[in-house]
Amino acid sequence: MSVFGTNPRPIRAVIYGVGEMGSIVTRLLLDRGVEIVGAIGRSETKVGRDLGIVAGIERPLGVTVEANAKAVLGRDADIAVVCVGSYLETMLPHFMTCLEAGVNVVTIEEETVFPWTSAPEQAEMLDAAAKAHGVTLAASGAQDVFWLNLVTTLMGASHRIERVVGRSVWNVDDYGPEVANHLRIGMPRAEFEDYVAESGWPEFVARQTLEAMVARLGLTVERVTSTVSPIVLDTPIACRALGKDVPPDALIGTVDTTVLTTAEGPTFEFSMEGRIHREGETDSNKWQVFGEPDLHLRNDRVPTRFITCSTVVNRIPDVIDAPPGLMSLDKLGPPGYQHEMTTR
Amino acid sequence: MSVFGTNPRPIRAVIYGVGEMGSIVTRLLLDRGVEIVGAIGRSETKVGRDLGIVAGIERPLGVTVEANAKAVLGRDADIAVVCVGSYLETMLPHFMTCLEAGVNVVTIEEETVFPWTSAPEQAEMLDAAAKAHGVTLAASGAQDVFWLNLVTTLMGASHRIERVVGRSVWNVDDYGPEVANHLRIGMPRAEFEDYVAESGWPEFVARQTLEAMVARLGLTVERVTSTVSPIVLDTPIACRALGKDVPPDALIGTVDTTVLTTAEGPTFEFSMEGRIHREGETDSNKWQVFGEPDLHLRNDRVPTRFITCSTVVNRIPDVIDAPPGLMSLDKLGPPGYQHEMTTR
Q: Distance between CA A84 and CA B168 in Å, rounded?
C-alpha cells in the first residue's frame, strides 16, 4: 500500500528474525538510512540485547531484540523484513502476525515467491489477510534477480521459446554444518541413492521460481517434476562447513533439478547445484533460452548470501507501494537499485 | 494508448521501411500472427511490389509497398514499425507523419531511446505530437534488453554502486560495406588517428542508453564524454563486408567508449567494439557493476541483428498500451516475451 505524505520520509522497518541473514539486513538498512523501529527474535541469547550487538554491528542501536512480535509491530512500522525460515508452513503464523498488525512484509522465505500451487490454502489465507489489512506480502532474494527477472528480461529478445534451462551453483561451505548435513555432504554415494529411493527427497524451491516465470509469460503449467543426483569426486576434498575431509565417492554436493512443462509447448528446467567449491570456483548462475534465437546469460562470482539480503532491501519501497495482497514475484515489477530508500 | 475492445484481436501493423531490418521484422510479425495492413518504402526497386517478395518471404502477402506514407497509415493500423535510420534528425518527419495519423510508433532508431538531451527540440516536438494524437512513440532494439534492462535488473542486487562498466562486441562483417567504410575498416592506424584529430568522430548511440539507465536509477547526469580508439592486428585478416584483406596495423574495427558521471557519484561507462571477428569469435555483451557487491553479467553468441528485430516486435503490445507521448526507454516497463501478440 502506498504511504501518502507531503514529503518522502525515511522508511520505518522492523527486523523479524535476527539470525545470520537478519543481521546482514540490519547493517544494509542502516547504511541506506532506513529507520529500524524494532527487532523480533526468540533465542534466549538474543532477546533483551541490543540489535546492534546481536547483529554484529559492534555498536548499540538503541533497539532491543524482543520476543513479543505484536508489541514491536505496533510501533507504526512501514514494513517487516522477515528472515526466519524457508517454507511457508512454518512461516505462516509469523506472516499473519505482521499482516494483522497492518504491517507490510518482505521476506527471504522461498515458497512465498509463488505459493499458489505448492501451498494454496496458506497462500489464499495470507492473500485475504493482507487485503483485509491493506498491506502487501512479497518474497524476494537471489531468485528475484538471478533466476526470474534476468531471464524474463532476456526473453524480451526471444521470437520463439522452446526450452529454458538454468543452472545455479552455490558453495555449501559458505553456510554452516546444518546446511551441509541437510545435503548429506560426506555420505557415500550408494548410501545416498538408497536413502533417496526409500525416503524420497524434499522438492526444492526452484519450483516456485519456474512457476512465477511461466505465470509472467502467460503460459499454463502442465507438469512439474523434481529429481536429485549426487555429486562425487575421485579425490578427497576438505569440507570447511563440517570441519573434515570428504572421501572419494562420497557426496560433495547434490544437483536438484526441476522440470516444468507447459500446455503451450515450452519447457523450463532449473538445476541447483549445492557443492563444496574447489580452489578458484565461484557461485554462478547460467541460463540458456533455446528457440529462435538461442540466448545465453551468465553471472559469475555471485555472492549468493549477500545478494539475497541486498535484493530484499531494494524491494522494500516496491512492496510498500504495491497493491494490498500476496504479491507473488510474477506480479511485482522488475527489481532495481533504490537510490532513495524513502516512502514514495 | 490502450486499444479497448470486447475481445483481444490481432494487432494491425504497418512496416515503415523495408530494408534489411524491416524485412526481418516482416517475417517475425507474420510468424506471430500480426496483421500487416501496409508497407511504406521509397526505393524505386521496391515501391509497387508485394511486401512478401521485397522482404524475401518468397510468397506474396497481398500487401504492396507504397511510397505515400500518409495513405498507408490511414488504414486503421495500431502501430507502425519504423526501421529507417539511426539518428533522430533524419527520422523526425517520418515519426511526425505516423503520430499525426494517430498511429503508435516503435522504432529501431537509436537516439529515440533517450533523446531528451542529445536532441531536446525534436524530442519535445515528438512528445507533444504524440500526446496531441493520443499515441506513443518508443524505440527498442538490442540496447533495450542487453544494455539497459538486464543491467538495471542486475543492479536490483546492488547495495552500493560505484562504477558500471559495459562492453558490447559486434561483427562488422555481419553488415554491408557501408558500415565497414563508416568504421574506416582497412584504414592505416596513423591515418585514422590523424583523421579523428582533425575531423572528430560522431558520438555513438551508447550515450542514450547510459542516460536512460541513469534516469531509471533517479541519478543526475553531470558530464558525458566519448572517445574512439582503433583496433589493429599484426597479421592480415579477410574482411567479408569489403571483400578484401585488411593488412597489419590497419583498422579491423573501432572501440567507441562513452563515460557518464553523475552528481551523486556513480560513473557509467560503455564501450562498443565493432570489429572483424576472427574464427570462433561471437558477438557478446558484458557488464560489471562495481560497488558492494561486485556483480557480473555476460551474454555470449548474441545474434545482434536478429534480436534487434525480435525485441522491437515483443515491444509492440507495450507501446500500444503505454500512455501517450514519447516514452524513452527509462519509462517503459521491462521487456519480455509476448506469448499473445494481440491487443490487451
A: 41
Partner residue facing B310 (CB), from A158, A298, A340: A158
**What counts of helices (H) and strands (E) characterise chain B?**
11, 15
Report helix angle A304-321 to A20-31, nearest 10: 60
Dist. CA B225–CA B210, nearest whole Å: 11
Closest by Cα among A8, A152, A33 to B156: A152
B298, A295: Cβ pair inside 8 Å? no
Which of B145, B318, B337 to substitute to test the interface with A, most A CBs within 10 Å? B337
All 3 cell numbers of residue B303? 545474434
Spell out which residues of chain B touch residue A28, defining contact as CB-CB under 8 Å. Answer: 159
Q: Among B48, B238, B55, B268, which Cα is nearest to B152's? A: B268
Closest alpha carbon within chain B to A216: B336
pTM (2 d.p.): 0.95
User: Which amino acid is present at A198?
Assistant: E
Chain B residue whose CA is closest to A312? B157
Q: Where are the beta strands (DSSP E) in chain A?
A: 12-16, 35-40, 65-66, 79-82, 104-107, 136-139, 160-171, 221-232, 237-239, 244-246, 251-262, 267-275, 284-292, 295-299, 325-326
Over its length of 344 residues, how does chain B's per-residue pLDDT go in tens digits? 445 555 789 999 999 999 999 999 999 999 999 999 999 999 999 999 999 999 999 899 999 999 999 999 999 999 999 998 767 788 999 999 999 999 999 999 999 999 999 999 999 999 999 999 999 999 999 999 999 999 999 999 999 999 999 999 999 998 888 889 989 999 999 999 999 999 998 887 789 999 999 999 999 999 999 999 999 999 999 999 999 999 999 999 999 999 999 999 999 999 999 999 998 899 999 999 999 999 999 999 999 999 999 999 999 999 999 999 999 999 999 999 998 888 87
